[in-house]
């Protein structure tokens, strides 16, 4: 069978949404899923399978149900919003291969046990090209326990990033939405002024103008007055199609320079595969200078007040 298939599994943290309105402490519920992210590129008319494991990490048995929903990006920090289930022919692309479990079914999961869910993605030859984003949910079914108190509903999800392409994917179309220093004190013309005792922090916002999600590659090169360099490598985080994402750095999530004291003129250059951008900033002990000015002014006022008091006495 000749077709292009790319399958990447990446371990990430997922958000567990809990409604704690009527849960008792001894009934804490914890779920897990692996893999939490599936990235797959397929051509129309082909199919794949992927095994997901759902874990009941609680001390009590649970009744769970599965659901596949569409998600959309929310904000610029990687959050998502869960939407509706796919409809029409798109809904038929997905099913479970399990003998006794179908997508959407309820099932019992004993405490400290796991359940395999074998997801099948079967594309018709007419499947439109593009990116499709889903979350495979496993959620508890509320049930009454202990004199009317119900267990809180808990949801856990694995994200599925599906790219449908009949041939080679288009070239990445990524641009720099903005590149700036987050802790600038003030500006002087085009120069940014930063306090010497505050390590500079950079904000990088990248925009994916293409039709498919991508992982950006790039770095920030910082050169000081004396020619010394620091390099911050960008995190290779997914940017969904037609979305903007705030990207962190591998060395520091806040893209913060190493060091405790900075002095002089600095040049920072953001280098990506398609575009570069540069900013220049000056680091001086402004807070210290302002503090000394304030202290000097205070002492002068005290001295003057003391002198006036002596003059009145005599």
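^ structure tokens above, recovered residues below v
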């Amino acid at each position: 069978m000749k077709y292009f298939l790319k399958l990447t599994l990446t371990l990430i943290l997922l958000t567990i949404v809990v409604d704690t309105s009527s849960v008792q402490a001894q009934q804490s519920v914890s779920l897990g899923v692996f893999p939490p992210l599936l990235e797959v590129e397929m051509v129309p008319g082909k199919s794949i399978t992927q095994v997901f494991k759902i874990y009941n990490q609680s001390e009590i048995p649970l009744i769970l149900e599965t659901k596949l929903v569409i998600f959309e990006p929310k904000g610029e920090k990687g959050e998502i919003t869960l939407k509706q289930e796919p409809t029409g022919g798109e809904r038929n692309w997905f099913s479970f291969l399990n003998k006794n479990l179908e997508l959407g079914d309820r099932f019992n999961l004993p405490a400290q046990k796991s359940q395999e869910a074998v997801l099948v993605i079967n594309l018709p030859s007419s499947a439109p090209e593009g990116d499709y984003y889903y979350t495979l949910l496993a959620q508890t079914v509320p049930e009454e326990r202990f004199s009317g108190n119900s267990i809180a509903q808990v949801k856990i999800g694995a994200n599925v990033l599906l790219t449908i392409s009949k041939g080679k994917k288009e070239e990445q179309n990524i641009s720099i939405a903005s590149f700036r220093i987050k802790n600038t004190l003030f500006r002087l013309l085009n120069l940014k002024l930063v306090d010497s005792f505050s390590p500079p922090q950079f904000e990088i916002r990248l925009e994916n103008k293409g039709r498919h999600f991508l992982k950006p590659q790039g770095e920030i090169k910082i050169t000081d007055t004396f020619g010394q360099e620091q390099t911050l490598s960008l995190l290779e985080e997914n940017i969904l199609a037609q979305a903007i994402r705030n990207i962190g750095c591998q060395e520091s999530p806040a893209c913060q320079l190493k060091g405790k004291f900075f002095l002089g003129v600095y040049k920072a250059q953001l280098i990506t595969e398609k575009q570069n951008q540069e900013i220049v900033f000056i680091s001086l002990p402004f807070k210290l200078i302002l503090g000394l000015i304030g202290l000097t002014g205070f002492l002068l006022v005290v001295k003057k007040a003391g002198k006036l008091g002596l003059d009145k006495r005599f």
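Confidence is low (pLDDT under 50) at residues 1-26.
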